[in-house]
Amino acid sequence: MTLATPAPRAERLAHALAQGLVLPEGRVTVLRPHAGEAFAPLDMARLHVVQGFRPDHDALSAAGFSVGVTAQPAPSVLVCLPRAKEHAQGLIAEAAALAGTMVLVDGQKTDGIDSILKALRKRVPVDSVSKAHGRLLWFDPRGVDFSDWAAKPRMIQTEFGPMATAPGLFSADAVDPASRMLAELLPAELPARMADFGAGWGYLSAAILSRRGPEVLHMVEAEHDALAAARQTITDPRAQFHWADATSFRLPDALGGIVMNPPFHVGRAARPELGLAFIAAAARALGTRGQLWLVANSHLPYAQALEDRFVHLSVLAEDNRFRVWHAKQPRKVKP
Length: 335
Hints:
Distance between the termini: 23 Å
Number of strands: 18
Shape: elongated
CATH architecture of the largest domain: 3-Layer(aba) Sandwich
Radius of gyration: 22 Å
Number of helices: 9
Number of domains: 2
CATH superfamily of the largest domain: Vaccinia Virus protein VP39
Mean pLDDT: 93
Low-confidence stretches: 1-6
Order of helices and strands: HEEHEEHEHEEEEHEHEHEEEEHEHEE
Strand order of the largest sheet: 3-2-1-4-5-7-6
CATH class of the largest domain: Alpha Beta
Helix content: 25-40%
């Protein structure tokens, strides 16, 4: 999944180098690039990319990059700017703490790069180039205090107690109303073998664990930071944490029930096929008498996929925003 085409970032790097940008010798750490990114004319051997979103992480690794989920100090650090302002500032503060002599920030205008440039110039001299509807900017972080931008731990109060989240995560500031709607409609007793597909920071998992019946809960989440937040507050020994893409996740034994609020956006782009892939994955993972509880925006085209994949289907509740489905008995579908 790609939030920006690979060409603009490489174009801006090449343009900046042609205009006189000189990178420090040695490794370049790249924070949060996406699948399909390109950084020519930089030598791939110099790059260590940091990406905690599992599909992007795996795609970058397959493309030949050195990939990790934890950043290490390097002479220069490049931030691939995310859309969320607080997340972006946190990454820049992290880069400033890690970089020897240079921090670079690259982003599209639609990602807020111009406002970031304006804010940076209030505290440090910044150079920049503009190309391909975006900017690449760079500065020397030595002696500059970015502590006010650093990502700060946060807790959200829920009916299951305080729960940890982090900037940049889905629904980082409050419980998502669709997830709350689903949580309220879960039955008092659930199957013994449960999973939460796209578990995020764990709200629906907490709801599952509050019911009678579950003996094991597989929390499947593609975003490493979200799973790390969930680990802070989901301490029930029945919970098992899986850093994985739910659409391709496999377990050796069938599940009795799955709960999910699947994603349907990549950046600003609507991608309902993600939810369809979640539905297909759930049907594969459930046993012959397995059950699925799913919440989605009412307009999303999931009804036919659910009918194709399950023998029994009902709508538990809906309003002008969301619909909660209950599906039972997956159909046998040829691969």
